[in-house]
Amino acid sequence: MSLILLAAACGTEDMRTVDPEPCSAEWQQWVESQVTTGDGQGHGPDIGSDEWRSVVEFKLGIRGDPAVPSRGTDEWCRYIDKRVRGD
Fold first, then answer.
1. Within 13 Å, how many C-alpha atoms sit on residue 17's CB side?
2. Most buried of 23, 33, 42, 72 (most Cβ within 10 A)?
3. pLDDT tier at 7 (50, 70, 90 boundaries)?
4. H helix count then E strand count, the chain
């Protein structure tokens, strides 16, 4: 029984304990797990693409905001990271 609980606990990481490097593939997967861009049926933009970044902005309610850094930059990733984490 304790083995089952341990396995279940390993699969549910709190967003405050996940600390992948912004812009990394791991970070993009983490953002996707927090801000779902697909329709739940396997349709959606490729994670990490410009289209995906645009949808992330839309879901966060910040698309078109002049304060948001350009999508292709590390600054964009850091900005999104702070928004997703609620910092």
1. 6
2. 23
3. very low
4. 4, 0
What whole-number distance in Å separates Cα of residue 7 and Cα of residue 48?
29
The residue assigned the tokens 């645009």 is 54
Distance CA 82, CA 79 (A): 5
Between CA 11 and CA 33 the distance in angstroms is 12
Contact by Cβ (8 Å): 40, 32: no
* DSSP output for 55-72: HHHHHHT-TT-TTSPPTT
- Rounded to whole angstroms, how far apart are CA atoms 23 and 74? 7
d(CA 54, CA 18): 23
Q: What is the mean pLDDT of the chain?
A: 86
